[in-house]
Design a protein that fits this description.
Number of strands: 32
Distance between the termini: 65 Å
Shape: globular
Number of helices: 2
Oligomer: single chain
Structural class: mainly beta
Strand order of the largest sheet: 3-2-1-32
Strand content: 35-45%
Largest sheet: 4 strands, antiparallel
Helix content: under 10%
């Protein structure tokens, strides 16, 4: 009798323990062993109120194993985080970064690096600093006038220069400036003036640099509200499926594309014609075509639109009506795409799958207010997203099967990521 009573008690305790375990652990804890490709992600370290810290580019297997750092770089500006994007053939990882802001007209540019950490190069506003140092150089003089009253400290940059030059110009005054060590890019090189509010551009002010000589900028530079300040930050980019081109969005309003390996000084071309301000974030190149998906918050209705490179934006059809899209990722078989939405912290964020055949969206993840982003696996069977416990915690990276049967943690403390390629 005592033995039977003991057995009953132990069975009850075991059942209670099992119920507790199921309540306190994720329902899906399996980690797939057959998920293909490699994940690239950035982590920020050493960031404080006085230091922007360092960006670490990691590679990790989809199951979370073999996490390793392949490259580190200074963050540059605290407000700009680097974002990776695999070239479709897996031979390079593109990423946006602000670490060379002092030798570029932009606040952040697109770079590419090989998966072994070698071969770093700049794609937008090429070349990067080390290559600029090897090019023939001259000097440039210009006159700058300040016609605004709220700023007097500026940083002057001319394309091809090794660095910006700080100047003090009081309101209503003008000064003469000489900039040395300006590389000859073989074209007209334009003047940019930067300050805290952003960047001023001057379409009429340029120089034809001559190595070994000093040349003057055509026309005086007048700092007014007419040509700035703008924010020349690249916040989103996407590769063509054959890896031959890259398209990107600049916060100042530019929507452009470049060859994957541009010549020094090569400028981007407009991606669309017409009212390109309607093209918002989450620009994504569709496989095997010159078509794009993008989110527009300015068009009516708001939603995800589809357009061909070189076409007028006004002709782009609406694919799905939706608000607050944070990410779009096309499925590898081009049957549809995944997209994530956010609701500014007062409702749950969601991940959807859109099917081109049925023209319908299906909710895959209905998460908390900190659920963010979505990237599909190379075979389209899995997806990844970021999440965190509260607004002070770092984001962690999670994987999930498309059908929801598996979910697992991949990496901790990430700021951005991409999953691509069989290397």
């Amino acid at each position: 009798m005592k033995k039977e009573f003991f057995t009953v008690i132990m069975t009850a305790l075991a059942a209670a323990f099992l119920i507790f375990a199921l309540m306190t652990k994720p329902v899906f804890a399996q980690t797939p062993t057959d998920a293909p490709g490699t994940i690239a992600y950035f982590r920020m370290v050493g960031t404080t109120q006085t230091s922007p810290g360092t960006s670490e580019l990691h590679l990790v297997n989809p199951d979370g194993s073999n996490d390793r750092i392949i490259f580190t770089l200074p963050q540059g500006l605290t407000s700009i985080h680097p974002v990776p994007g695999w070239r479709p053939d897996g031979r390079e990882i593109g990423f946006s970064s602000a670490h060379e802001v002092s030798c570029s007209p932009y606040e952040s540019d697109i770079y590419a690096i090989r998966p072994d950490g070698s071969g770093l190069r700049r794609i937008t506003n090429a070349p990067m600093y080390e290559e600029l140092a090897r090019l023939p150089k001259g000097s440039v003089t210009l006159t700058i006038g300040n016609l605004i009253t709220n700023t007097s400290i500026f940083f002057v940059y001319i394309e091809g220069a090794m660095d910006m030059k700080q100047v003090l110009i009081s309101a209503g005054s003008s000064i003469n400036v000489t900039i040395d060590n300006v590389a000859d890019l073989g074209r007209k090189q334009f003047v940019y003036v930067k300050s805290g509010p952003g960047t001023w551009i001057f379409p009429q002010a340029y120089a034809d640099v001559v190595p070994g000589q000093t040349v003057a900028v055509a026309n005086a530079v007048q700092i007014t509200s007419g040509y700035g300040p703008y924010h020349f930050k690249i916040n989103n980019f996407t590769w063509k499926s054959d890896g031959s081109e890259i398209a990107y969005l600049v916060e100042a309003g530019l929507k452009e594309f470049l060859p994957a390996f541009p010549a020094n000084g090569q400028q981007g071309k407009s991606l669309f014609t017409g009212k390109s301000s309607l093209v918002g974030g989450s620009l994504t190149w569709l496989p095997e075509s010159d078509e794009f998906l993008y989110y527009s918050s300015l068009a009516y209705p708001q939603g995800i639109y589809r357009g061909v490179k070189g076409s007028d934006v006004i002709t782009h059809p609406l694919v799905v009506k939706t608000d607050y899209v944070s990410c779009i990722d096309v499925l590898p078989d081009n049957s549809g795409f995944l997209y994530s939405t956010y609701n500014f912290g007062y409702r749950s964020n969601k991940i959807f799958q859109y099917d081109f055949n049925s023209n319908q969206s299906t909710v895959l993840v209905d998460g908390g207010v900190y659920l963010s982003g979505v990237v599909a696996s190379p075979d389209g069977r899995y997806l990844t997203f970021a999440n965190r416990d509260d607004d002070k915690a770092p984001y962690d990276l999670f994987g999930m099967s498309i059908d929801g049967s598996q979910q697992w943690k991949i990496a901790s403390d990430i700021v951005s990521w991409d999953w691509e390629s069989e290397m």
